[in-house]
Amino acid sequence: MTDVGENTTTAGRIAEAIGERIISGALPPDAPLRQDHVAREFRSSHVPVREAFRQLEAQHLVVAVPRRGVRVAPLDTKSVKEIAEMRAALEVVALRNAAAKFTSAHLARIEVALIEGDNAETVQEFELANRAFHHALVAPCAMPRLLASLDGLQLANSRLVFAMARNAGWRPRPSQDHRVILQALRARNIEQACSLLARHIQTIERLALPAA
What we know:
There is one protein chain. The chain is globular and about 55 Å long. The longest helix has 25 residues, at 144-168. Helix 4 crosses helix 7 (144-168) and helix 4 runs antiparallel to helix 9 (190-202). By secondary structure, the chain is mainly α. Strand 2 and strand 3 (69-72) form a beta hairpin. The termini are far apart. The chain has a 3-stranded antiparallel beta sheet. The chain is built from 9 helices and 3 strands, in the order αβααββαααααα.
């Protein structure tokens, strides 16, 4: 019998690999994920596969549908709205709690992520920098449950980034929204930074993504 520690490690490896496929679009919305197939691919038992599915569900990347099994989460306009509104609410709470703890080193990390996003030459580079920027904004809040929820929502948002790139193309451009958020934080104008962040995230609701 495989011990619990090994199952956890295997589950994490499986969840990461499948999550990357979902985020990149290699696994499209509503695609079925079958335990037997996944276990065979990763040469594992069903136990870590089930745990991997639970992790992916917590990250909003898959859904368990009665009588249909586990499937890739939808990416329709309703899902886009839900992701945006949840992120806007939770990320603002995290930023408000993090901002009082910001040091010059924290602000420097935010700026590094901003610059990396501005200099990105591919959508993959931009997505990593965008994720790093938003993580750096909230990391000092020291609220692990909130941060775990935001990590999952940010992964769901990454799907939107790649979907937009597939649907409308992607070209390098600086993020003025990120820049003004950082400016407000440097000026210690926390409420303005929170307002700018919420507005920045909620722009996702205006995306005209096709129904899954």
